[in-house]
Structures are given as C-alpha cells and as structure tokens.
Amino acid sequence: MNFPEELKYTDSHEWVKMLDEQTALIGLTEYAQSELGDLVFVNLPEVDTELSAGEAMADVESVKAVSDVYSPVTGRVEEVNEELLDHPEFINETPYDSWLVKAADIADTVTLLSAEEYAELVEKEQQ
Amino acid sequence: MQLITEKGREGRGLSLLPPCDVERVRPDEADCRKLPLGMPAVSETEISRHYSALARRTHGVNDGFYPLGSCTMKYNPKVDEEAAALPGFTKVHPLQPVETVQGCMEVLYLAEKYLCEITGMAAMTFQPAAGAHGEFTGLLLIKAWHHSRGDEKRTKIIVPDSAHGTNPASAAMAGFTVVNVPSAPDGSVDLNALRKAVGEDTAGLMLTNPNTVGMFDENILEITKIVHEAGGLNYYDGANLNAVMGIARPGDMGFDVVHLNLHKTFATPHGGGGPGSGPVGCKEILTPFLPGARVMRKENGSYGWTGGEQTIGSVKAFYGNFLVVVRALTYILTLGREGIPEASRNAVLNANYLREKIKDAYPMAYDGLCMHEFVVSLEEWKDKYGVTALDAAKALLDHGIHPPTMYFPLIVHEALMFEPTETESRETLDEAADALLEIARLAQTDPEALHASPRTTPIGRPDEVGAARHPVLRG
Amino acid sequence: MGSYVPGTKEEQQEMLQAIGLDSFDQLFEKIPKEVRVEKLDLPAGLPELSAAEKMEEIAGKNRVFRHIFRGAGAYNHYIPAIVRSVVTKENFVTAYTPYQAEISQGILQSIFEYQTLICRLTGMDVSNASVYDGATAAAEAAAMCCDRKRSVICIASTSHPSVISTVRTYAFGSGAEVILAPQKDGRTDAEKLKEILNGQTACLYVQQPNYYGQLEDCEALAGLAHEAGAKFIMGCNPIALGILKTPAECGADIAVGDGQPLGMPLAWGGPYLGFMAAKENLMRKLPGRIVGETKDDKGNRAFVLTLQAREQHIRREKASSNICSNQALCALTAAVYLSAMGDGGLKEAASQCYAKAHYLQKELAAAGLRPKYSGDFFHEFVTEGEVHSSVVLKWLEEKGILGGLPLSSRDILWCVTEKNTKEEMDDVVSAVKEVIRICS
C-alpha cells in the first residue's frame, strides 16, 4: 500500500498535505478507502465552517456504511472539493489526489504521523 | 421487465365512472395544472397481468421459509385478513359520530386491554403506525413526564451498542442525546458500564429483552433498577417480544413504557414494508401524556373517548393503522391465554432446534441456549475461505429460503441472524438445516459456487454501488 | 385454541430432546422467577369459526352509511375492483421490506413505479417509498427544512388540525418552534404572513385545498416563503392534482399529502399513505426508503433500495429520520389506482368532484345553509346556518346520510366526491330544507 513520504497522517486515517504553515489539504488514505469499500457519496462541510482538531468534519458513504472523517486541524474550511460530490469514486481510485477539504487559518493539529509511522499503524490494524 | 408506465398505448383505459350528472363547472384556468399527468394508459388485462408478474417476482411468507432475524416473519393467518376486510370496518369514516362506531371503539378497547395484560402496562395508544413511530412516541412520553416534574435537564437516552438503528435515531428525533453503552462479551448489558453512564442527566434507557443477539438478559431487574435509581425511565423495545409473550412481561421487568410491533409479534402481514402498527403501552405515571384520545368503557357498556390535558398531541392523524389492529385482535382472540405462551415456547424451541442442527458448521456468536433467534458469525469463513455472510445469504436464495438478517447486530462481524418463528414445521427446519449444511460444505470445497449465487432468482446480484452513485429514482 | 404451531406434542418433545432438554421450562431458565407469568388474564382461545363470528359481531356494531358527505382528511372515492384484486395478492401482502433484491424485484419495481407516478402527479423530481400518512409526511417534510440557522416552522392555520397537531408533536421532539400563519376569509392571510416570515423561518407549510376546502394562492405563498429564504412545503390532495396546479408549478420545494383518496378504503382512519416528493436538490434529505434502478451482474434491469446511508439502520442517531416500516402496500394500492384511472379517469374524478361540490354548495345556499367563505374551492366547503349543526346532521343521519363534519354549532364542512349522485345531493338538500322549516 502506498503512503507518500511528503504527506502527514492521522491515526483516524486522514492524510494532511501542508501547503504552507496555515493551510493544508486533507483527504483519506489508501488504507481508509480500501477498508471503506466503494464510496457512493461524500458529505462535505460548508465553506467557512470552523474546524476543531479531532472532531468530525465530513462523512463518506458506502452502500452499507457511513464513516466520519475527522479534522486533523483546528482552523477554517477554505474550500471543499466539489468534484467529489459527483465522483466519490475518485477517493477510491486516486486517494491522494482526491482531497476533501482545504483548511486555512490552522492554529493547531492532532498528533500527526510520518509515512513510516502510519505504515506501522496500518500493519498493526491489519493484524 | 417493463414498467407499467412503459406498457399500454394512448387511448386505452378502463370504463369506471358514470357521466357527470350535474352542470360541469370548472375551476379558473389559472388554478389548473398545465403539466401533463402521464399516468399509464393500460387495459384492465394489462394491469392484472403486470401485477401478477410482479407478484411472481416477490417472495412472501407464503412462498417459503423466511427466518429473517428480528423481523418475526411468522405466518399471517387468513381469518385475520377476512376480519380486516369486513365492510363494517372498511367502510367507516374516521369522523363518524361516536354512537355509529361502537364496533371500532370496541376493537381498540379490547386490543388495549389484552395487550396491556400481555405487556404488564396500564394503558396503550394505537396511534403509532410502526415500531420506530412507537419508539418516538414512547420517548416523547418520557420527555413529557420529566418536563412535567420541572426536570428539563434529563437530556440523555442510554442505548446499548447492540440496539436496532431505530433506537438511537428515535432518541435523536425526540431531542435526546444518545449515550451508547458497550455490551458485555456475552451480549448482555455491561452493568458497570451502565452504572457509569447513568446520572442526573439520564432521561431513560432503551432496551430489547431478549436482546438483539437473542439472549435474555438475566440482570434485567438490576438494569431497570439502576436506571430508576438514577431518576430515569425504562423503555422496552418490543421487537423481540415473540420470545416471551405470556411467559414474562416487560412491566414486571421494570419497564415503564413499551412499544409493540403488531406486524411482527401479532402476526399481521408486513405488506412489503408496511403498513405496520406500533402501539405504545405505558405505566400509569405516563398515561396522561399519551397521544390522541383513548377509548373508555362507560358504565352502560358503551364506549366513549377520554384524553388528558397533558397529552403530547397527535403523532398521526386519526387512530393509527386501524385495520392492522383488527387483524391483531383477531389473532389474540384465536390464540387466547393458552395460545399466546404456546406460540412463544415454540418460537424459542424452533430457534434452538435449528441452532442445534447447524452449530457444528456455523460458528455461533454466543454460547448456550438462545431465545427466539440466534446469531452466527462467519468471520472465520471470510478469513479461511473468502466466503462472507452475504455469500451464504445469497446461496440460500437458490434453496428457496429467504436469507436471515445480514450484518446485524453491528457488534458481531459477518453476522447472520436466524429467527425461524413458531409457525414453521420440523420438516421445514430440517430442510433449511440441510441447505445450510450444504452451503457450509461448499464454503470449504467450492467457494466460487457461493460467490456466483444466486443463480435461480429473477435477477442476479444487483449493482448497488452504481445505483447509489448515479441514482435513477423514477421512470 | 390455535397458535398456528404445526408441531404435535410428540414432535415438540422430540425436538426438545434433540437439543438435550426434557421440558420447555428449561428453555426459559434465564428468566428470573419474579418476572414469570403465572397465568394470563385473557379469554380462552377461539376456534377460527368462533373468532370470525366474534369479529363480525363487533363489526356489526358500526354503522355503514351508504351516503357520505364527510371528508376532512378521509375521502369516499370509488375504488376500481382491480385495486383490491392486486393488493390482496399474498406475495405482496406477506413479504417483508425488500432487503433481498434478488427475490423482491416485484415489490421493488412496484415501489419504483409508485415513485414514478407520484413524481408525475406532483411534478416533483424525486419521491420516497412512502411514510405513514399525510400528517407525518408534513412533519417529516418540516424536519427536512430545519437546521441550526433556521428552526421555525410556519404552518398555515387553514391546515388540517391533525396535521398541525402532528407537526407540533414532532417539534416537541426536535425542539423546533411552530408558528401558525393567520387566516382571513378561510384562506391564508398573505399580508400578515409576510410579517412573520424571516431569517429564522425554515419552511412554510400550506395545504391545498385547505381544511375548509378553499383554494389557496400557493404560487404567491411559495414566493413569500422563498423571499424569506425558507422552503415551501405544499400539502396536496392527490385527486385534486388531476386538474389543479401542481406543487412543482406553484414553486414548492417539497410536496406531501395523504394518499388515501388513491384507492384506500375509509377504514376508520387507516392504514392510509403519506406521500413525499421533493426537488432534486433535497433528494438526500428525504426520509425513508427509496428505490433506484440499476443492473444485475448479467446486465438485466434491476431495482434496489438505494441511498440507504441516509437511513437509521446505518446512520443511527445521525439519520435524517427514524422511519423504518412504511406503508408499502398502500403505495402499491395508490399505484394500481392511478394505473386503473389513467389520465382520463383521474381528470374525470377530479372534475366531477369539483362540479358536484359546486352544485351542492349552490343548492344548500338556496336551502338556507350559506357558504361561509367567498373563495373558490375544490370538493369541500363550509356552510353556516341558523339551525344547530348537530340538529341538521342528526336529521340527515336518520335518513341514512352521513352529512358534513360539524365545525361549530353553526358551521358544517361538507365534502362531495364523484361517488355522490345528483339524486343523493337533492335528497340532502330537501332534508336540510325540512329540518330548517321544522326548527324555524
């Protein structure tokens, strides 16, 4: 499974790509999408919604399940990836290009893992 | 198959109404629809054949074994249907004068009396149209009771993690916050977790007993006491009453309010998803808050309406799904005081019999005798043979058996939940066991055969992902 | 006594032995002694013949009126014979919710057809598979519109009292506020309504025709709701939609109503049918089951329950509603009814309702029961008179006629459908004349 080096990860399976010190893209990892199965819909937050690190900010639906996506950061929603509303399958196909939320005004984050640390976590979960 | 809207042709139709015998006045053109109607233009033959074809593509209880856990798919007696079709019931307007609907009122009066006796409750409303509607109603009674005591801080409802999805959803609709408590390893309520969860903000607890894994919670009196001592009330979800009717009463277990599913326990048909009926019974402290009006019997033997000023209001128009209550009353009259517990005893016997026959091949999620249903976990099959609960369920379709409930309760992985009900014969159970054992054998020897099932049904496995990603919701 | 248990006593004993037990009691050992039932205080069970007779005897205590002029939420329309024939088919009656699509294509397709016909009838984009009745449909629709910013539900005071009460009860649960839109001359007062709609208003609910039978100016009312940023919910009588302007044409965001007039018997109030249809953008907020079209693994047309992640069994406390069982068989009834009626039959039923109601109103006015409101109406209207309503209605009752619904000592709400003949209406009018003459 692919966990790009340049990204940071959370233990709830989101990836974070810091664009600068206060802005980041947030998405779901390859492992997350494989566990969730074929996604059929994404509920995205409204622009300008306040984000709290560790709190649910969106959810993704498969046919038989719904899972929360947790915000790794405290900040504000600057943009959402509206393309996913019509094409949730992009998360399955290209998880690291399919960001859900662009967060700005980041003041805090949950503990972020490196690619290596995250790979270890996934390995443990798979057992 | 073609849709009814794709059949027929312009100009076809039925001859139904006589010509208008008064002057034809018409509404103002500005008030009239300009959109075409687009109803089918079909003959009566076409309608009849169309729906006969659809009926053939529908598996009902009448077509075969239907061990759908938690849904109590027992046989629907035909005499109940006949009673519900009596013109004396079907042709009565809901707003007729009281003295002209004494029969309807007697139905509600008797159904209330008998169902209160079966549940150990003081009063009952028939307004709720289904189980979930009953849950919502019952929770509002709890809310109204706390409010009437000036206690508006009780905002939390405790729900075990094994509960039906409707429980937390109903609690949320009633404005409560849901507190999920984990189950103990044997599926029962974890008493310590419950003790920690209750407090001054506890409005109540929602519970099924037997619980959703088919086990009777032995600690039931302790559970309801913990909630009562914390100042909360206990709500009994009647989904599983078929295990204990006439044997144990929710009222005696410490429950204050209960809903029943007449379309499960009391043999009324499901109609492909409804109409059901979800009457709510309660103890005396909650009676003043019941919705709608209740029937009371006057000294002269006639029936009248009674209703409290503290009622939560209506949860539906009129008196509920009345014809469903007619069916249930007929059922109760037929079974009577001996037949009610007899039904439950055999529901539990049938479940244990089937369980016993397949338990070596199907890993049971919980040990020991079950009540009216049991849960198996095919997690091991998934790991070893790549065969899922879904595969096993779909393979059953080729044996003419409706699969058990899949992937519920959520606390059991790869769950299949079997509820045979009391109306199935030993031969049926034996045949089902043979089919299940055959599927278990194939899981080991030929898993591909299971992945490819079903083969004999009107369609193969549908593309549910495609349906949800690109919804087509009308023709 | 019957319990529909097939097993004989011997068989039951053998089955007990097969699981290693001697008696039924051992099956229930986990149940504490304190809560065991000694004996139920119920009558002894009845053989089928006796149960059937008992129910017939009870049904016989009701009075069935041959001539019905009462509506107010339950309407006496003609039900084509094919309707009952289809909806009593055992497969449809005894099936559960179609969770197993492969053996439920019949039910699933019938619901899909129902959704199709409701969309066409209302002009809306998407319909769900039904809810309990018109009142709960209104309450569910109002809940769809509420969010953190907007939580005030405005409902026309000209709506059916049960609808108002049900919306209020649901709001007691959710914590939403309910306000009533004022009325003037039996219709919603648009001028006063403007003053109460604002940035907190989630939705405006208006019933068409309203409780008094009057036609509301729904297009204008929808405009007012939208100006305030609120949604417009239109409660519709489905027969009236045969000729009257659709909710889509009026600009409604959500159309709801009670489907009872579409082939369901009066049945003392139920089971009826709640229909709900919405614009495309509200699709994912619709509560309850929805059937979608797809293909099976061989490319055949197939139908499945879809968009299920909205629902309680998956989303639990975050679900849009708790609804699970609905009124599927009633939805089937409505679909068969609409197929039997066709465009022509539905328009004819609607226009006969309209014409006949106008005839009766005119004749009653001449007899001394004056129209209370001045606006146009569909098939219901309110009269006011000098003689006490109960006296008038009792007089009719003695002649085998169920007259209108008494709203007060002076006001009566009448309903006429295609089933009522001129002769019947003339009988009502002469009886009314008689009773007024006697009383004055």
How are the secondary structure elements laid out?
The complex is a heterotrimer of chains A (127), B (475) and C (440).
Chain A: E1 8-9, E2 14-20, E3 23-28, H1 30-36, E4 39-43, E5 50-51, E6 56-62, E7 66-70, E8 73-80, H2 83-86, H3 89-93, E9 101-109, H4 115-126
Antiparallel strand pairs in A: 1-2, 2-3, 3-9, 4-6, 5-8, 6-7, 8-9
Chain B: H1 44-56, H2 78-84, H3 87-90, H4 102-119, E1 123-125, H5 131-148, E2 156-160, H6 166-173, E3 177-181, H7 191-197, E4 202-207, H8 220-229, E5 233-237, H9 250-253, E6 257-259, E7 280-282, E8 294-297, E9 303-306, H10 322-358, E10 374-377, H11 379-385, H12 389-397, E11 405-406, E12 415-418, H13 426-445, H14 447-451, H15 464-469
Helix pairs in contact in B: 2-10, 4-10, 5-6, 10-13
Chain C: H1 9-18, H2 48-59, E1 67-68, H3 81-87, H4 90-94, H5 105-122, E2 126-127, H6 134-145, E3 152-156, H7 161-174, E4 177-181, E5 183-184, E6 187-188, H8 190-196, E7 201-208, H9 218-227, E8 231-236, H10 247-250, E9 254-258, E10 274-278, E11 291-295, E12 301-305, H11 312-315, H12 328-367, E13 370-371, E14 380-384, H13 389-398, E15 401-402, E16 405-406, E17 411-415, H14 422-439
Parallel strand pairs in C: 1-15, 3-4, 3-7, 7-8, 8-9
Antiparallel strand pairs in C: 2-10, 5-6, 9-10, 11-12, 13-14, 14-17, 16-17
Helix pairs in contact in C: 3-12, 5-12, 6-7, 12-14, 13-14
Helix content of chain C: 25-40%
Q: Which strand order do you get reading across the main beta sheet of chain A?
A: 1-2-3-9-8-5
- CATH topology assignment of the largest domain in chain C: Aspartate Aminotransferase, domain 2
N-to-C span of chain C = 59 Å
What is the number of helical segments of chain A per DSSP (H or I, 4+ residues)? 4
CATH topology of chain A: OB fold (Dihydrolipoamide Acetyltransferase, E2P)
Please write the string of helix (H) and strand (E) elements of chain A. Answer: EEEHEEEEEHHEH
Number of domains of chain C: 2
Q: Mean pLDDT of chain C, as a whole number?
A: 96
CATH domain class name of chain A? Mainly Beta
> For the report, how would you describe the main beta sheet of chain C?
7 strands, mixed
SS class of chain A = alpha+beta
What is the helix fraction of residues of chain A, given as a range?
A: 10-25%
In angstroms, what separates the terminal alpha carbons of chain A? 15 Å
Strand content of chain C: 15-25%
Strand content of chain A: 35-45%
Mean of residue pLDDT of chain A?
94
Which pair of chains forms the biggest interface, and how many residues does each contribute? B-C, 199 and 205 residues
